[in-house]
Amino acid sequence: MCGGPGCVCRISRRRLIGAAGAAGAAALGASACGSSGGGPEPYDALRGTVVAQTDDIPVGGGSVVIDGKLVVTQPQEGDFKAFSAVCTHAGCTIQEVERNIHCLCHGSEFDIATGDVRHGPANQPLEQLPITVDGTDIVLDEKDSGEGRG
């Protein structure tokens, strides 16, 4: 047994390579699972741009806009909201907005005013995105105002 000063521990090449591989895989997995906010957000390219016109968003409903990237709703006259069009259940794109926001992949429904789940299988709300209404233009804000989720 070894343990004193000047002792040289012997480890097989196979065990050393296995340990190094496991450590590398753990580091790679940790970096893939967590986001420290270092990379661009999915909507960064749209920030500051017009994403819809107020006349195109029905009162009590909404529309999927920007090639299926966003859902813009008008729960009450003059009150506009924007949400990610990515369903929080399985990542499908929202296809339909009537009284609720509908994901037709698995039947999840979300509230048009809050993005909260009204009917599963989704159990997380849609990400709310900050917008500004400028005349008839609905503009995705440059920076999050803190009211969004995500």
UniProtKB/TrEMBL annotation:
GO cellular component, one term: membrane
SUPFAM superfamilies linked to this entry: ISP domain (SSF50022)
Record keyword Disulfide bond present: yes
Pfam families in alphabetical order: Rieske (PF00355)
Keywords (A to Z) from UniProt: 2Fe-2S, Disulfide bond, Iron, Iron-sulfur, Metal-binding, Signal
Cited CDD domains: Rieske (cd03467)
One MF annotation (Gene Ontology) recorded for this entry: 2 iron, 2 sulfur cluster binding
Family matches, as InterPro entries: Rieske_2Fe-2S (IPR017941), Rieske_2Fe-2S_sf (IPR036922), Rieske_Fe-S_prot (IPR014349), Rieske_Fe-S_prot_C (IPR005805), TAT_signal (IPR006311), TAT_signal_bac_arc (IPR019546)
Cofactor: [2Fe-2S] cluster
Domain Rieske: 49-140
Transmembrane segments: none
The UniProt record lists the keyword Glycoprotein: no
Signal peptide: 1-25
Job of this protein: Iron-sulfur subunit of the cytochrome bc1 complex, an essential component of the respiratory electron transport chain required for ATP synthesis. The bc1 complex catalyzes the oxidation of menaquinol and the reduction of cytochrome c in the respiratory chain. The bc1 complex operates through a Q-cycle mechanism that couples electron transfer to generation of the proton gradient that drives ATP synthesis.
PANTHER family: CYTOCHROME B-C1 COMPLEX SUBUNIT RIESKE, MITOCHONDRIAL (PTHR10134)
Name under which the protein is recorded: Cytochrome bc1 complex Rieske iron-sulfur subunit
The organism of origin for this protein: Streptomonospora litoralis
Annotated gene: petC
